[in-house]
Amino acid sequence: MKRIILSITLFVFIAISAIGQDTIKVNSFTNDNPHQVLTLKKNSYFKKRAKNIIFLIGDGMGVAQVFSAITANRGVLNMTQMPFTGFSKTQSASSYTTDSAAGGTALSTGQRTYNGALAVDMDTLAIPTILEISKSKGYATGLVSSSSITHATPASFIAHQPKRSMQEEIAADFIGSDIDIFIGGGHKFFTERKDGRNLLDELRKENYLTFTSLDDAVNVKSGKLAILTAENHNETYPKRGEMLPDATEKAINILKNNKKGFFLMVEGSMIDWGGHANNTAYVVQEALDFDRAIAKALEFANSNKETLVIITADHETGGMAISDGDISKGEITGEFTRGGHTAIMVPVFAYGAGAEKFTGVYKNTDVFEKMMEAYGF
Ligand code: MG
Ligand code: ZN
Fold first, then answer.
1. How would residue 18 be classed by pLDDT, with cut points 50, 70 and 90?
2. Which ligand has an atom closest to residue 153 CA?
3. Largest CA-CA distance found in the chain, in angstroms, rounded
4. pTM score of the predicted model
């Protein structure tokens, strides 16, 4: 008898799992706490050369993710205040559907490579990134991420590794890079290493000040900074608080000291993770947090007329669709068609010096080319 019950239970369990795999996941979120958005000055200084570029990547942020955040924030976002928009085609050299390493590399180097590769080509040879090119021309550089700073997206701007999983090797690539500021998780990849090196000691020898929280660095107004705010990834929003907007503001305040100009990449990492989890609330809260980080970049560009701000994504995640919502109440119902990435185009939003170059439909690699043109490189 017990056996029969066990078999029936097992059968029901398997049947439910099988249905689960084919069922589109539907779930809702209501945002009770909409944020104010900026009113941007008219973008009347376009066609000027960009002295500074602030490049913000919403990992996994397709049009559905953006529109769910628009709905949740009662119809407006900072990113939708930006006057120039386009679409980026996200394919990698090895796959119709990219991963974040190849997607990041296309944006950081202007070359498509195989999924998993970090700023290396199909033959695993290093390709210079926009961060490295701007550094070589005397610009200040920075990276900010809500995930580990060694994770695929930020890594594709500073590391050259054949596989994204090589996080200790990626951390070692920060040594000698001369990057001015980096803020994110990933402390353990700098200190608890198989090779026994303590990369934070090595950074201090390169005159970096090292911190484990933004609060500890609050009085530091200049110099080179490594701020590793978590052992691995930071918490999801709202547990991590205003880490991402605060880190963005901190990085801008350090980088703007450079007379020549700067390049800063900021990643909202976990929009992608909400997509993988097929979780509407997760996606929307991360997208809203990312939009508040965008506000810090736009505030700076709004007063500094030589700054270009670009928002885009590396790919879409979850095949998200929106089946219902209410803009007046900030209610959104999301549906997800898969647990992984999709191949669809992603939006690009631009504001400031050179922003007019970003209209149209183009390849992810063209985002790099347009940024280089905007700098006049
Ligand atoms: Mg990422
Ligand atoms: Zn992903």
1. very low
2. 1
3. 81
4. 0.94
